[in-house]
Design brief:
This protein is of the alpha+beta class. The chain is built from nine helices and 20 strands.
Length: about 375
């Protein structure tokens, strides 16, 4: 069994949240080891919106400016009716006195993941191990031992704290015995990307558009060079009993695209995926020296971009909490505050807001 020789913070998951915690800690002089099950960085396409406070937090990590250079500024967003068009438009410039960034930044989350990774691996006190799947967390009197499965067999890493940032199916959360309470929506979401220029046929669109309809709502978001279009699926469609293949997804997407705007030629689709949507929050964010952040701690439907943004907020607060705990020589009050406060926010704000967003999109009463 291999073992690390240092006493770092051990982080499961090299996504945006795990890498943000790692970079924040490493820049404070704290050794970190990131353990990622996949063979490389995973190109996630579920989230593409960064909110004003998140952009400010990314400035603190040194990633705000390079991300803004790559992304699109969306200072307006719309609610629309599929048949009649614009219902209302919100101008985020009204927030100019409250934030340096009165807009949403539109860019795929993988762009942030790559920026975080590139800066992290430059630091001498940071390591990232791919093809290292965390299988368990054991706690000792003064630290943790994380077991992993590697291409060469099982291994162990010793550390001072462990962080589960390993997604909704978190092995860390399972190992810590933390329940993941909530529900799953009956419908699945079909998310697609196209190079078709919707502005040519609907010139009054904003970068972010929520389109209501009694039969089939959809979301139309602009990303650099692409439009992202999200559709709900019918739970009764048997094709969604299993994961459909690319051809099947493209066929379903083409049908739905033609109902958005009919064209003579098929829409060019560059990416597509179907996924289930959960609303869940971990019953605890901390057990001893084991902590959770991001999707390992809370998952929700993607309407409004609350999942990724909430995860980055977790990462920033957890970085500070661990830093304070280590500086104090073991006073874990800051960790308790992180666990309690971030869970409260997940329940009272993230879950509540995203559930309301879902209800709004399903609304069939024209007056409402």
């Amino acid at each position: 069994m291999a073992s690390s020789r240092t006493n770092p913070v051990l982080i499961a998951g090299a996504g945006a949240v795990g890498l943000a915690v790692a970079l924040g800690l490493a820049r404070r002089g704290i050794a970190v080891v990131v353990l990622e099950a996949e063979s490389r960085l995973v190109e996630e396409y579920r989230a593409s919106t960064f909110h004003p406070p998140t952009i400010e937090m990314l400035d603190g990590l040194g990633e705000g400016a390079p991300l803004r250079a790559k992304g699109l500024v969306a200072d307006k967003f719309q609610f629309r009716d599929r048949q009649t068009g614009l219902i209302s438009e919100f101008d985020m410039e009204v927030l100019a006195d409250d934030t340096r960034y009165p807009y949403r930044l539109q860019i795929e989350q993988f762009a942030l993941v790559q920026l975080l990774y590139d800066d992290l691996v430059k630091l001498p006190n940071a390591q990232v191990h791919f093809r290292n799947r965390v299988t368990g967390v054991n706690q000792t009197a003064d630290g943790v031992v994380v077991t992993v499965e590697t291409p060469d067999g099982p291994a162990e890493f010793e550390g001072c704290y462990s962080i589960g940032a390993d997604g909704g199916r978190s092995e860390v959360r399972h190992s810590l015995g933390i329940e993941f309470e909530g529900m799953i929506y009956p419908e699945r979401y079909l998310v697609t990307f196209t190079t078709f220029d919707f502005w040519k046929v609907m010139p009054d669109l904003a970068h972010v558009n929520y389109v209501s309809d009694p039969e089939e709502w959809f979301v139309l978001l602009r990303s650099p060079g692409l439009w992202r279009v999200l559709f709900p699926t019918n739970p009764d469609e048997t094709v969604f009993d299993e994961d459909p293949d690319t051809a099947t997804m493209d066929g379903l997407a083409q049908e739905r695209y033609q109902r958005v705007w009919a064209t003579a030629e098929p829409y060019p689709i560059t990416h597509r995926n179907v996924y289930r949507v959960h609303q869940r929050v971990a019953t605890r964010y901390r057990v001893g020296r084991g902590l959770l952040a991001g999707d390992a701690a809370h998952v929700n439907n993607p309407l409004g971009g609350m999942g990724l943004n909430g995860g980055i907020h977790d990462a920033v607060m957890l970085t500070d909490a661990i830093g304070r705990a280590l500086e104090s020589g073991g006073d874990n009050a800051s960790l308790d505050h992180y666990a309690n406060e971030r869970r409260r926010i997940a329940v009272q704000y993230i879950q509540a807001q995203t559930a309301q967003n879902e209800q709004n999109m399903h609304q069939r009463d024209p007056e409402v």
